[in-house]
Amino acid sequence: MEETSFPKGGMIGLVTVVTSALRVLLHRIQLRTVLASNLLLPLPFIINSTTVVSERNNFIDYIRIFCHSGHGGAGARHFMRNKLTAKGGPDGGDGGRGAHIILKGNANLWTLLHLRYYKNVIAEDGESGGKNNCTGREGHDIVIEVPLGTIARDEETGEIEAEILEDGQEIVWLRGGRGGLGNANFATPTNQVPEHAQPGEPGVEGWKNLELKVLADVGLVGFPNAGKSTLLSVITAAKPKIANYAFTTLVPQLGMVAYRNDQSFCIADLPGIIEGASEGKGLGHRFLRHIERNSCLLFLIPADSNDHKKEFAILRSELAQYNPEMLQKDFIIAISKSDMLDDELKQAITAELPPNVPHLFISSVTEMGLTALKDQLWQILNKPASAE
Ligand SMILES: Nc1nc2c(ncn2[C@@H]2O[C@H](COP(=O)(O)OP(=O)(O)OP(=O)(O)O)[C@@H](O)[C@H]2O)c(=O)[nH]1
Ligand SMILES: [Mg+2]
Hints:
Blueprint: H1 8-40, H2 55-58, E1 62-68, E2 101-105, E3 120-122, E4 142-146, E5 150-154, E6 160-164, E7 170-174, E8 205-212, E9 218-222, H3 228-235, E10 253-259, E11 263-269, E12 296-302, H4 308-322, E13 330-336, H5 343-352, E14 359-361, H6 370-381
Parallel strand pairs: 1-3, 2-4, 9-11, 9-12, 12-13, 13-14
Antiparallel strand pairs: 1-8, 2-7, 5-6, 5-8, 10-11
The protein binds guanosine-5'-triphosphate and magnesium ion (MG).
């Protein structure tokens, strides 16, 4: 009889093909693990942006992400069996809780830039319960670190679900599903062999928005070129871009003002506002949301303005169109670039402005009036609550 056998060359070829296929498969599995771990590993992945492309890209105050908290593990249905116990009781353990998605305040962050590339945040499911009353492992919670002043909303309903205001503050944003109870929990004197064990509860999922409203004490409001950034650069250590053309500042900038006796307060320089900003002119009113949280507003009107009163009225009306509550805030008017004014012109401007409006003359170049300005801002920020 003739023996059937593989030719030697064919065998080697087959082995080579199988080995390379295995190698490709292994590579794919490794790649998948890396990608999956990106989504499953606990956040935060704080990207230290030394490679920032431009000022405009650097400030992210809104992101949209899909979130899914973990499913609870199922409770086990099991009865004890071993060589000494023929008919042991039920010993099915409980399922573990699905992972939560937690928001945590971090005072060292001030944009949502580090979350920019995370489109999905998928938390781990809880493990099922085991025999011998073993409870399943809980999913690892995901902690998303966000800057102070971050609001979390549900995209569909628009409802505010969480708000981070303090450093270290933690809010369980999306709860993981509860683990199901194992059948050991259902044993009663009349039913000693419960067949029932609970399934785990599902997690929560949906498209969510994270929105940052900068938490500064004072917000600088003014037309483009009013000298806002120059003022920030003089009274704080911030180094904003300053130039003699409109819309030099494209994103909000923050700075800490050092005040007498080692005290300080935070001031935010916002992109310039022009007439019609609430209808989208200039940079629109996209950045006005950052003024909503400021305790006090500092309107900056340049000394060389054609009509100081009108400029102030336009700024107020743009704020009101965005949110009428902004007009309730305390404010001061500072006439910037006052080094260009003599006493006569100062008197003319004072006469022009509404009589009951507090105003003062400052110059960032000669530092005139800056101490008085800081004093007034400090007084407003620290006035007793009853005086409001
Ligand atoms: N003489 C004088 N010039 C000033 C003073 N403050 C600012 N400037 C000049 O005004 C111009 C505009 O200054 P910025 O600080 O960039 O103005 P801004 O309000 O931040 O402008 P945007 O960012 O475009 O909204 C620059 O050329 C400054 O040098 C001042 O106190 N005195
Ligand atoms: Mg500026």
